[in-house]
Specification:
The structure is a homodimer. By secondary structure, chain A is of the alpha+beta class. In chain A, α7 crosses α10 and α9 crosses α10.
Chain lengths: 506, 506
């Protein structure tokens, strides 16, 4: 594998002081958040595509996360909002059955309807707690939510076409994201497969979320629901539903979203991010650093385990030396929903840390630490997810109490100022590679002001501000939907390109 | 009782042609709807105070009505939004226990928390189907919704103060509406009582609705929840929680919200609008006159019975000659929630009418017709609540399908034009009574452009456009929170006043 000379880049950065490129105008403004979401309720990791994490303090006591506070993780930018104008005409292909054809949302609405509650959770939720600094959005607890989903069973749809063919081993769903030109579709297409048994047992196509038409940001007008499985499997803007003999050939299935050791590349030999293991965490009071009054307090949080439900949640105020049972708060919405729980404690003045440990109906106990893995997927370790609560005798007059109504900081700044970039010579060479030389060139997918690039497929680099090691690894090996450039760029080209992205985003 | 000479008024109206008062400027604009609500989802019956009815076609298949689509019926204008700024400091008095005192929302949040699902329904829901034209907002089916409510049990709160006193017979909650000056508080104050047994069994003080902090329009930061009881009992912006020996002396309790024969005045001898009887209706497809495609269709609707839950819903396509069982759609959220149901039918080209009949767990069957009553309260007759579905072979290209995403008409027009009023001589005398002579004068409570009145307590008369008989009855007998003026105004004064309101609102 191609090796990057880290020291060379660092050296070139050191030499860069004082060298300025022609100033490039910088004028960006925060986009309006989708679906009535308020900036105060989210950590905005990225905007094109959206990566919106629910603030820990914005989760409620109730079991359903409202649309206005539901996290968003889109792999690619959304299709245009106009697809909702004639939502009922949205159609998708059905393949891999005795017969084949297509159906529209209107067709689905004349079929047997069901509503189920299910947790949606990004595979990378909890990544922020990884010590090896994996790439990707640094989600803490808020890339998860629980909703009521309405639609029809995949089994009923396949039945309409005579049932699945004999070779069917997977249910494969294809998303309707607009793919950019010049990119190998299989590298970026969102297409995921799950075992066909799962597909026939409880998967659904859904058009309603929490009683409202499925919003665009959440895959509307129609998405696949794979109850109890990680978010990536719940393909949005569904255009094709297939019973297939093999897993999808898309990168996102073949090598992406695989649990693999740190440093390893993903492949079919690694477990795919399917069923969500048992997990729990506290959401309040006192999340996001807000002080609370010392004394009696009611802690609350969520607990779930895909396809199983949870039997019990325990809470510890001494880092797991002793545990106490928590009480369930509301109705049980089924094995794929989460349950909210509470426990009364007494908070002493100062920092109080509480951890929680859920046990599911199959007897699985939430581990103290999850197994570290390359991308920081599936973190469910209880030690990482504890809540620190700062208790005080008197709440400050101005600092508001933990009520959920007070705006908090967001990560994206609403900047509209001119900016000049100071780039090293190496970085200046890298800029040409970024904008023209690489195939496809980086501007096709990325937004980066220093390159005047406005691509919408990959992360906005101005907002991501990746570290040098992160850039190098992504360029050489690829990451997520991004192809590897290690084969087409020389060592010094990779260095120059990386230097440019690094310097251009500081 | 004072008798109004209807013929005299009609005569004076006829004589009014050509008589013009000095033009009065007319400039109103629709206010922004609260809580992310969209005009397309509501029939806006009034804006100050809000009377927002969920469009029939805006209900979903799922059991929970999202905040963005939840109806609003406020008896008085809301307190200022600033009360949410320090929500946790919101406090209320506790009375009628061995001890007494006050608690804040922060105190409640340290107590045992629970979440329950309950239907909220305005007593007047279904009033629009009454043949005797009762006064009040003309709700069809949409003054109802089902939500998840989080808070603490009233019983736990009373327990904190040593439990209720021996004489306690009622739980009485007092709302935090700002009362206008010059009005006898007991005439307009929102204070309601329910049996103390009910209060201790399952009533709650709630601060969270569907996972979000309780919005101002729905009583935030804190309201009383009386599960399974009509909306009026669920006092908003709660300032006092009391165990009382007697029912509240407020008019809204003593004579208002009573089931009484047409023409009778309300009193303690009449049943109060407490438990909601068994009821069901269809919400789609094809609500609000939208054509649907002929052929196979899945009808869906809601069914509930306060404190009991429903055992069964039957559907009839022949006006009740024959019935078929419907299927439940989603999870059962408890005895006070509603359940959504569906049934597959085949729609012929043309008009199709379907009615539904729910049976609750106590064996109560939804009646064909509710008993007519003065205010059109508690209408649960299945004959009135049927859904007419227009089915066509080909949907028109432009007319959109029933997808819930297309704006529909709302009742309030966004007018900003000059308007002149043509008033009869009688009406001109009435204008002086409206603005000055009556005690308190009508402008204190009502908005009426022709009087340059901007009162916010009672209905906006420009929007209500009451009929003559409706005006006369309200003036003479009072209605809702409005006092009776029959004792202080002469017969000709009532006629003049009524003529003015009538002519000034055409």
């Amino acid at each position: 594998m191609y090796a990057v000379n880290r020291r060379f880049i660092l050296k070139s950065l050191a030499a860069s002081v004082g060298l300025a490129l022609t100033p490039i105008s910088f004028a960006s403004s925060a986009r309006t958040l989708p679906v009535n979401k308020q900036a105060a309720d989210f950590v905005i990791h990225n905007d094109l595509p959206w990566a919106l994490e629910t603030m820990r303090g914005s989760f409620g006591f109730g079991p359903i996360t409202p649309l206005s506070r539901f996290f968003v993780r889109n792999n690619l930018p959304m299709p245009p909002a106009s697809i909702l104008d004639r939502a009922d005409e949205w159609s998708f292909k059905v393949e891999g059955c005795v017969g084949s054809g297509s159906l529209s949302l209107r067709d689905l609405k004349s079929m047997r309807v069901q509503t189920v509650a299910s947790v949606l959770q990004c595979s990378g939720n909890g990544r922020a707690y990884s010590s090896h600094n994996p790439s990707g959005s640094q989600w803490s607890v808020g890339a998860a939510g629980c909703a009521l989903w309405t639609g029809v069973a995949v089994a009923d749809i396949f039945e309409k076409f005579g049932g699945v063919s004999n070779e069917a081993a997977f249910l494969t769903g294809t998303g309707g994201e607009s793919l950019p030109e010049g990119i190998d579709a299989s590298m970026v297409a969102v297409e995921r497969s799950v075992p066909i048994q799962k597909g026939l047992e409880d998967c659904m196509l859904v058009w309603e979320m929490n009683g409202a038409p499925l919003p665009l940001a959440h895959g509307g007008p129609l998405r696949l629901l794979v109850p109890g499985y990680f978010g990536v499997n719940n393909v949005k803007w569904l255009t094709r539903l297939a019973a297939t003999a093999q897993e999808s050939t898309a990168k996102i299935q073949q090598s992406g979203y695989r649990l693999r050791a740190i440093g390893e590349s993903g492949g079919l030999q690694h477990p795919s991010m399917w069923r969500m293991p048992v997990k729990s965490w506290l959401n309040g009071p006192g999340a996001n650093g807000r002080p609370v009054k010392a004394g009696a307090a009611m802690l609350y949080g969520v607990a779930f385990s895909g396809e199983r439900g949870v039997d019990k949640v325990e809470v510890s105020g001494d880092n797991g030396k002793s545990w106490q049972d928590a009480q369930w708060i509301g109705p049980d919405l089924g094995v794929n929903a989460w349950r909210t729980f509470s426990i009364g404690v007494t908070l002493g003045v100062g920092e109080n840390r509480y951890v929680t440990r859920a046990i599911d109906s199959a007897g699985d106990i939430q581990p103290e630490l999850a197994i570290p893995n390359e991308r920081g997927y599936g973190n469910n370790g209880w030690a990482d997810h504890g809540l620190n609560i700062l208790a005080v005798d008197e709440l400050p007059e101005t600092a508001s109490a933990d009520s959920g109504d007070v705006p908090m900081n967001v990560i994206i700044e609403q900047a509209s100022k001119e900016k000049t970039y100071t780039l090293s010579k190496t970085a200046q060479r890298g800029r040409a590679i970024f904008t023209a030389q690489s195939q496809p060139n980086c501007s096709v997918c990325h937004t980066l002001d220093a390159a005047q690039a406005k691509g919408l497929v990959g992360p906005n680099l101005d907002k991501l501000k990746p570290g040098l090691a992160q850039i190098e690894a992504a360029v050489v090996q690829g990451v997520g939907a991004m192809p590897a450039y290690g084969g087409q760029l020389s060592g010094s080209e990779v260095e120059a390109l990386s230097a440019f992205v690094f310097e251009g985003t500081r």
